[in-house]
Amino acid sequence: MSWYALSLPAPPGSLLGRVLGGPPLRVFGRTSYALYVIHQVVLVASTTLLIRHVFEPYAPNASTLTLQLALYPLAIGGSLLLAQLSWRFYEAPAELGQ
Question: What is the pTM of this model?
Fold first, then answer.
């Protein structure tokens, strides 16, 4: 039932319409598919490569979980950046037929 309420259009001048039509959610909506596709690869690749080749040689006794948690903000930021770049240089020109 709640999915039905969320699928109804919000009047443009209402508070809900302004919140759902605001710039942060519009950017997220444009890049959400690219973020979905990219995020897992970036998370796994960045944490595995950085832990194995950068941190382990200098801190061999450090907990892998601690290192992963420290690297997640960097990986999430990288995922957001790659998703935005993918939309800008791949998806947007494809939508325009260029």
Answer: 0.68
